[in-house]
Every structure is written in structure tokens, then in C-alpha cells.
Amino acid sequence: MIDVSELRLRQVLPLGLLAGAFVAVLGLARGARRVPADFTFNNGNEVTSLDPATLTGLPGGRVARAIFEGLVVSHPRTLEPLPGAAESWEISTDALTYTFRMRHAARWSNGAPLTAHDFVYSFERFLNPLTAANYAYLLWYVKGARAYTSDVDVDGQARHDFSSVGIRAPDEYTLEIELDAPTPFFLDLLTFYTLCPVNRRSIEEARARWPERWELEWLRPENIVTNGPFRIIERRVNDRIRLVKSDSYWDAKNVAMRSIDVLAVEQEATMLNMYLTGDLDFTERINPALAREMLPREDFVPLPYLGTYFYRLNTTRPPFDDVRVRRALHLSLPREEICEQVLGVGQIPAFSLIPPILEGFEGASAGQPDLSRARALLVEAGYGEGGTPFPTIEIHYNTSEAHSAIAQVVAAAWRDALGINVKLRNEEWKVFLDSQNNLRFDVSRSSWLSDYADPSSFTDVFVSAGENNRTGWSNPEYDRLVALAARERDPQRRMGQLRDAESILMRECPILPIYFYVHQNVVAPRLGGFHHNVLDAHFPKFLYWMDDAELAEKRRAQPADWTRAPAHGPRAGLYSPAQQHERSAR
Amino acid sequence: MTRFLLRRLLWFGITLGIVMALSFFLMHAVKGGPFDGERQLEPAIERNLEARYHLDWPMWKQFLHYVGPLNLDQQGAAWLTGGDGSRTFGGVLSGDFGPSFRYRDFSVNDILAESLPISALLGFVAMMWALALGISTGIASALWRGSKIDLALRLAATCGIALPNFVIASFLIILFVFLLPLFPVAGWGNLSHMLLPGFCLGLVFAAYISRLTRTGLLEALSQNHIRSAHAKGLAPRTVVMRHALKGGLLPVISYLGPATAGILTGSLVIERIFYIPGTGSHFVNSALNRDYTLAMGVTIVYTVLVYTLNTIVDLAYTLLDPRIDLEEV
Q: What are the pLDDT digits (tens) for A372-410?
């Protein structure tokens, strides 16, 4: 018996080993094919989708901007709207009708011309309730669009016909969009990546070919048809997306990188390791524990962008229903200590909701810290000496070391300055969101990152009916000012209205701003065309590699105390055909 | 044997049913949904999303739809499936794990098909490391029992068991990536990407195998047939390698089943540190993202894997040791 079993084992074991070796060889063959890309960057997270209509989140936006192009694109530095798939546009005198002239040279990656009908189809699909696009509201400024998305029958189909929506193509190369009301930032909205066009024919062909799985099939790298500076040729979840330059793109002569690898590294230690060993040329995040050490390096220069870290107060609960209590908490918040001791890489103490970096907008301030005034306010509100004892309050945050460290500093400061008891409560992200949405908190950690470079993307949040308000606070004057500003066509008057709205918010303190974000980009010194802007948005189209001469020139302009970092990338540079031409002419 | 397998199959069905029902209802009972984010959705848009993924159905209907084999999706998806009606069959019982909520361009089947071979390959490399290290150090320990070598190896094995693999990974990255640039720091593609993570993942199992080999070999060496082999005048090397090791490795082989399951389920930390696109990372992430279908898919696949491996181990026991009777297992 023993002999037989041993015999079997002896036969089975080598077979198993052989099978394993075979798999290993397959794996080897697969990896060996890959040549490093011209540019490799870490996206921080896997993209949710390649379908511009339904994708959400910054990582998806970075890829969508590389492979698609909307009617209007952003200037990489100033973010002002520039012609994209549309060559030019006219705005009617009542500011209600936008007429776009399509670019005749614009092509899909399969060579077909890109026309106004493609945009009508794409916007219809984007607004269709069955597509269920998270960002559909961006187009609700268009006549009839809100009703088209919102009014659905029992099957979830739209009750209205798309002809009721103000989007038309009178001919192949003209696109007309009619708005409900003048919307001063409508062109900025159009630069948003979810408004990129999709190719109707490729979707319909996929539908005919794979009746059951066409929704996934049309997005596969081998099937998807795109219109941007790059096209996608490879994709593996949590591994990499390989992009290559698209020759059919109308502005291909201004694109330098021939290939780009997009990675989705989530571990902060891993992304820094990969950057330091040259596996990454750009990563958008860094281990907070190491950020300080990286600080004097030329490849890590944190700068502010449109993002604010703040605490929401639940104004439906006592004692936070009293504005004096809210102001007392505001006046005793240790912002400097948080920015310098807890964070320490250039974050800016915030005394307003909107970061003061928008050109032409001067925001309101909630006032500098003042401990004695804070104590006096609490007494006025009837707490402390001679009044009722202040109830124990709770700071609510989602589980994370950084949030916990900040909450501890705040709790200690409130305890010391105001003599109140503060407890901490942390929750897992999705549970945390659920609690915040349902106002199950006293003080809750929050942040807001702007989608477009306009103060209204912040002030819109706290209108009474806003689903992101989450404080229970409402103020009719605030709502009125925000609504006025949405229609105001004079930029200066509009900024004034938004500023007034912000000062109401800062006076009433339903939120306590803590600090303004700075980006944490680590960028290879040799990388050119990588501009800082207030949205921390980056556009692969403009990237190139500097040659030694240009790098030396850039370094000469840097402050003397910056440390040099190793310069990855080709020493001879990598320039777009147009730049190459310019350089040889010089 | 047949009766044993049939009984196992029956229990397999029951186990899987319970695992599916428990994880499905527990997961949906947890607060927060797949579409919750920092930005709350417009109510109308949220309704559209829920309708599209049937999250507006009563829970029992969602469960039946998920398990299958009948596809309850009648009118809702008519527009999406091209208007020509929907499929009669769907759900897990028809082999369809559904669409992923987080990775919207992929079905759960796609994701598992792509990531499981990678985790399997990583596991294979880890197992090779574990066997090579474990058996060789185990033999050395047994042969020089009580010596300094034995002490050092046993100490190392204890460390291997006690230290979590991410600590070992950090040390090895400092050593073999930054001080001695031999391996890439992370990523997946060729053999050089596999050796370091494979080693970290296999180390704890190497430590166990080393101990098992040592004990097994010591026991085998004290047996009568070994003494007679020595008496016959065979070279000590032949005695150990051909006679003693055969019996001495039995405990190691019976440990391979649980070890394989352990390597497969233990790879999540290593996969994250070394940026490996395997199934392990989906284990945790799918739950955090409330990616209901992917979390269910990973749970079901691992249940099947562990159950199958355990059954194979039970079968292997009887092949190795005729004293064990399957009918009594």
C-alpha cells in the first residue's frame, strides 16, 4: 500500500511542479514584452472607468484628459478655456446661446471625422437617466436638461424627449447649446473631463456584436475609439494603463511623449520607493511622515490649490445651534499649531472657506484667534461660571492617522482654552459619510476640493437645499446672494456677491476652516510642461523631457538652498515635433 | 472513497450557501453604499444609479438575483441590453458574478480571471522558497541536533514565525533594492519582480516547514530500518536522503494543503507593498469600497479554494498513511 501511494505521489508531484513552472514561464513571457514608457506616473488609485460620462474622481480625470478632448480645454497654467474639439465659439448677446464651430481637422482614433453630432449624442447619453452619470448636474444649466435627467418612469427611462433639451447640431460642424439662464462659468464647466465625447459607432457596433456584454466591451483598449492626444493600448486593473501618442489627433505635432504608463499605486511608502528608484517620474502623493524630509528637494515643492480642510458643526444640535458657541470654537482653534507641528509642509492656516489664490477674488475672513473673546462668548451663551456646564462634545473623523492627530490637537486646545470636555470618535470612511450625511455628529472632519476654478464651487455647497451642506445651517440672505451670483454677468459685481455670501458664512460659523491644502506632487526635475495651477490639474499633452541645457537653465533659477534630485529621463531631452522645429531654428 | 467525496460535496453545497447568504446580508447591513463619496449625489442622480444597479429592490430579491440561476432583471435593463430583452439566466449559479461597482469597466469574472493567476504565481514562488528554505534548514537542524547551527536555525525559524511579513519586506527592500540594487522595488512582470515578494510571503511557511522537517527527520532517524541501513554500511548521506527523509517529510506534505490556503489568503499585504495586481488586494479593498459584487466574488472563490484544498489534503493523508480510513473522517 505504501509503495502504491508513494508511486502516486511521485507521479503527481513532478507534474505539479511542471505545471507551476509552465505558469511561471507564461508570466515571464508576458512581462518580457514590455518596453518602459517615455513617461510613467502614479495616478494614486485605479480609475473607476474609461467612459467619460460615468467616471468619477481625479485619477479617472487624468486618463480621460489624455485620451479624450472636449469642446473646450483648459490652459495648463491659467486654466482659462481654450479651443479643443471646437475651433471657436460665439456667445449670444443675452448670454443664453453658445454656438460652437467644430474643428475640421479633428479626428477619432479610427480616422473618422469628429462632428457636432458626436457631441449631441454624447451629451444625450451623458444626461440620460439610464446612463446614471454622477456628474450629470454639470449640464443642468442647459435648457430642459434637468427635467430630462430627473423625470423618469417606473422603468427608469426619461419621460421627456431629448428634443426638449437645448442641445442641437444644425450642421456637421456647428453645435448650439441653449442655457436656462446666463451662466458666467459655463465654458469652464465644459472643460470638465466628464463632458468629453464618445464615439457612437463604436458603441453601437459593440452592442450588436456582444449583446450581453457590450457595456464592458466597448471600453476595452482594443475596442474603444477616442479623440485625444493619446490612445489606450493596454489596461490591467491595479497594474497599469499604457497610452501611446495618437497620430490621428489634430495637434499631434505638439505632443512629445510617445508613450505613457499610468500606475495605480496606493501604498504611500511604495510610491516613494518607486519614484526614488526611477520606476516613476511623477507621483501625486507622498508619505506624510516623509514629506518633511523631502522638503528642501527641488522635486518636491508643495504649493496651494483649491482645497480646504475644515470641521462641520451640527447646527441642529445644542450647543451648536448658538452662533456664540460656534464663534467661540472658531476663535480658539489652534490653526498655526496644526499647520506647523502636525502637517509641516507648507499648509496654510485657513480663516475662510475659499483659498485666497483665485485671481480677481478677495475672500472674507472669519477673524483671527482670540481666546479671551472666545471665553466671553461662551459665558454670554450661558455656559461656564454661573451658567450651565458646557456639555461634552465629540469630534468625528474618518479613520486616519493625520485626522486623528489634528483632532487631538483641537480637542486639547478647546479643553485648555474653554474648559470643555472633548471626546474623539473615528469611523471607517463609508460609515463616516453615512453619519455625516444624516447629521449624526457634533463636530465632523470635512474637506472640499474644487472641480472648477471659481469661488461658486465652494459657496454652492452651503446653500440651504444643498445635498453637501451637512450642517443643518441655512440662511436666506446667503441663498439669495449665491443665486444672484449664478446669473450675474458682470464679473466684478459677481465676485462681490460671492464675497458677501462667504462673509455671512464666516460670521455664522457653521463650519470651522482649519487649513488650505498644498499639493504633494513629487516630480522628476527633468520633466517639462508640468505646470502648477489652482486645481492641481495636469495635462499629459504638454509634457516633455528637458535636455541637459534646459535643465541647467531651470536649476540656475532655483533658490540656492534647494537640494538637487537625480534627474530621470533622457539626457538629450524629448521634445514634440513642433518644439524640435523651434529649437533647431534657434 | 466515493461515499467520502459525495458527503464532502453535500457539505460543500451547504457551506457555500451559508457563506453566500451570510456575507451578502452582512455586507448590505453595513452602513454606506458603493456610490457614497465626499460629494453627496443629487437625489435624482442617486435614484438613477440605484435603479441601474437594482439597489432599490428589496433585499431578498437582490439576493435571489445575485445567486441566480434565474435572471430577475426584466424591464430595467432592456434599454441597456439593446432592447431585445434580457437573458433568462444569470447570477452566481450560472457562473456570472455580476458587474463590479468600483471597477465599472469590468465584470467580477474579468477581474478574478486576470488577478487569480497572478496571485497563484506569487503563491507558487512563495511555496518554492518555503520548501527550499524549510527542508534544507530542517535537515541541517536535525543532523546537527543541539549544535550551534541547530540553535541558530531554530532561532531564525522562530523569528520567521514571529515577525510579520511587512516588517521583513521593509528590511529586504532596504537591503536588496537600496543598498544592493539587485531587484526592482515593486511591480509585476518578470522573474525579478517575483523573488522578493515570494520570499517575504513564503518565509513564515519556511519556518514551519523547517520545524516539521526537523521533528520528522529526528523521529525517522531513530527507527529500526535506519539503523539497519547504517549497519548495511550505506553512506550516511544515502541513509539520510534516501531512507530517513522519505518518512521524515510526511508531516511536511500534510502541511502543504493548509500552507497553500494560507499563502493564497495571506498575500494581501505583500501584494500592496510590492504593487502586485493580484486577488489579495481586492479582499480588503472591495469591502472598503462597498463593491458588493467583487467582495462576494472574492469570498466565494476563496471559499471554494480552501474547501477544495482541505479535501485534497484529507485524501492525501490516506494515500500517505494507510492507517487512516476515509469513511471515518
A: 999 999 999 999 777 888 999 999 999 998 899 999 999
Contact B81, B73 (CB under 8 A): no
With CB atoms and an 8 Å threshold, state whether A219 touches B42. no
* Residue A1 banded pLDDT, cuts 50, 70, 90: very low
Give the span between the Cα atoms of A127 and A134, in whole angstroms.
Answer: 10
The overall average pLDDT reported for chain A is: 90
Q: Which residues of A529-566 are buried (b: 16+ CB within 10 A; e: fewer)?
A: bbebbbbbbbbbbbbbbbbeebbeeeeeeeeeebeebe
Is A133–B45 a contact, with Cβ atoms under 8 angstroms apart? yes
Q: Identify the pLDDT of residue B325.
A: 67
Q: How confident is the model at residue B250 (pLDDT cuts 50, 70, 90)?
A: confident
Number of H helices and E strands in chain A, helices first, is 19, 20
How would DSSP label each residue in A74-98? E-TTT--EEESSEEEEEE-TTS-EE
Largest CA distance in chain B: 87
The angle at the Cα of A41, spanning B35 to B122, to the nearest 5 degrees, equals 80
- Complex-level ipTM beyond the 0.90 threshold: no
C-alpha B303/C-alpha B300 separation (Å) is 5
Contacts with B153 (C-beta within 8 Å, 6 or more apart), sequence order: B137, B140, B141, B210
Which residue, among A338, A273, A307, has the nearest Cα to A522 in the 3D structure? A273
- Determine which of A396-410, A438-452, B88-102 has the lowest per-residue pLDDT on average: B88-102
CB atoms within 10 A of CB B70: 15
Distance CA A268, CA A291 (A): 11
What strands lie across the sheet with A174-178, from one edge to the other? A86-91, A97-102, A174-178, A167-171
Cell of A193: 473631463
Say how far apart CA A489 and CA A497 lie, in whole Å. 12
Per DSSP, helices labelled H in A179-334 are 186-190, 200-209, 214-217, 268-276, 288-294, 323-331
User: Chain B, 54-93: which have a CB under 8 Å from a chain A CB?
Assistant: 75-76, 78-82, 84, 87
- CA of A553, closest CA in chain B: separation in Å? 30
Q: Which grid cell sits at A132?
A: 446614471
Task: Write out residues 328-387 of A within 8 Å (CB-CB) of B.
Answer: none
Lowest mean pLDDT among A145-149, A411-415, A566-570: A566-570
